[in-house]
Amino acid sequence: MKKTIKVAVTGAAGQIGYSLLFRIASGEVFGADQPVEINLLELPAALKAAEGTAMEINDCAFPTVTGINIYDNENQAFDGIHWALLVGSKPRGPGMERNDLIRDNGPIFVNQGKALAKADRDVRICVVGNPCNTNALIAQHNCRDVPATRFSAMTMLDENRAKASLAAKAQVPVAAVKNMIVWGNHSSTMYPDFENTLINGEPAHKVISDQTWLQGDFIKTVQNRGAAIIAARGKSSAASAASALIDHIKCFVNKTPQGSCFSAAVPSDGDAYGIPSGLIFSFPIRSHGDGTYEIIRNIPLSPFAKEKIQVTLKELLGERDVVKDLLLK
Ligand code: NAX
Questions:
Q1: Residue of the nearest CA to atom 20 in ligand 1?
Q2: Lesser CB count within 10 Å: N end or C end of the chain?
Q3: Separation between Cα atoms, residue 197 and residue 200, nearest integer Å
Q4: How far apart are CA 70 and CA 72, in angstroms?
Q5: Which residues, other chains included, contact 69 with Cβ-Cβ below 8 Å and sequence gap of 6+?
Q6: CATH 3.40.50.720 residue ranges in the chain?
Q7: Which atom of ligand 1 is nearest to the CA of 92?
Q8: Which of 186, 205, 248, 288 is labelled catalytic?
Q9: Taking every pair of C-alpha atoms in the chain, what is the biggest distance, in angstroms?
């Protein structure tokens, strides 16, 4: 019998939680023969809804699930966990500026960062709740017991959106699109790097001749896709975000095939692409499949790409400044 993997999901009663939990419980992520125990963390007002979701997970009779626990306290929810999926955060209210949202959500990640000291020594943390890069930075700074490299923020949804957009334009199946690197912040400044993407093994900008589209509408569409989903659905992306989180975890758990990469926001080691040390920045990543990963070096960057990366870097540095009192030195 394998040792149970314990996974905590915050914001478990929310939209993303509802799409995510069943897929984790089903064995899709960690394996059909891998027991999982799931801790749901919610605000007191949403505990009843979390209970309903837990009842439904039980009703699926997944053979992989060894337990579902519901908490409104992060110290209990994070006790002994191997994965922390930090999805819950306050949504942006009407008329709210991005900096207000950053300030509003910061304290959640201070407390959750501290509580992560209770986790298993080998814990991995992925932050989805927005602004996810800066929230991950706050959690990481407040949890010096866990190595910084264990923290990530999710840019996989942006990668998936960009892949789908290029595939549609090139009229190829999405599986033909590889190495779609998203650089920087999960926000409207992110840079989806079409110059290093391959379509059927060829550079995407050679396959798609419309350079104006690539440099213009393609980037804008990916950067603003979240807002477009809200405009169409009346609610923010949920199933696609959950699906991207499943992809994110799988990418970190499994060895990345030779010559491939995926996108995730991880702490800069200060040595890659001029990004200051410690900033949680989306890079091209290769997982070694043993719990470690590397930031892939030497990706060629054109002056166009470098300019875009500077824009998203500037935004992230500004966000770091807004929360500097929440970051432990
Ligand atoms: P919902 O509002 O449906 O759910 C959020 C849940 O979090 C609520 O049930 C709330 O009670 C809970 N919550 C709030 N504060 C909490 C706390 N301190 N501890 C535990 N639970 C808490 O939002 P949902 O659509 O599920 O989105 C969740 C987060 O994901 C949002 O911040 C959203 O902006 C972010 N997203 C991030 C994406 C990414 O690619 N990184 C894409 C999708 C999504 O927009």
A1: 42
A2: C
A3: 10
A4: 7
A5: 37, 38, 39, 40, 77
A6: 5-153
A7: 34
A8: 186
A9: 56
The verdict on whether 186 is a catalytic residue reads: yes
User: What residue owns the CA closest to ligand 1's atom 29?
Assistant: 129
Please, which residues have CB within 8 angstroms of residue 163's CB and are 6 or more apart in sequence? 174, 177, 180, 197
pLDDT more than 90, % of the chain:
93
Tokens of 105: 């959500």
As a whole number of angstroms, the distance between CA 224 and CA 229 comes to: 9
pLDDT tens readout for residues 269-286: 998 999 999 999 999 999
Query: Rounded to 10 degrees, what is the CA torsion of 116, 82, 249, 195?
Result: 50
d(CA 297, CA 48): 47
> What is the Cα–Cα distance from 311 to 209, expressed in whole angstroms?
26
CATH of 5-153 among 1.10.10.10, 3.30.230.10, 3.40.50.720, 2.60.120.230: 3.40.50.720
**Does 3.40.50.720 match the CATH number of domain 156-321?**
no
Please indicate whether residue 14, judged by its CB atom, sits closer than 6 Å to ligand 1: yes
CA distances (Å), 258 to each of 18, 162, 175, in order?
Answer: 34, 22, 16
Q: Is the pTM of this model over 0.85?
A: yes
Report residue 122 as tokens.
């080998």
pLDDT digits (tens, 9 = 90+) for 163-215: 999 999 999 999 999 999 999 999 999 999 999 999 999 999 999 999 999 99
Give the C-alpha separation, 38 to 65, whole Å. 8
Query: The tokens 């923010």 sit on which residue?
Result: 236
Q: Across-strand partners of 83? A: 7, 124
Q: What is the mean pLDDT of the chain?
A: 96
pLDDT band at 144 (very low <50, low <70, confident <90, very high): confident
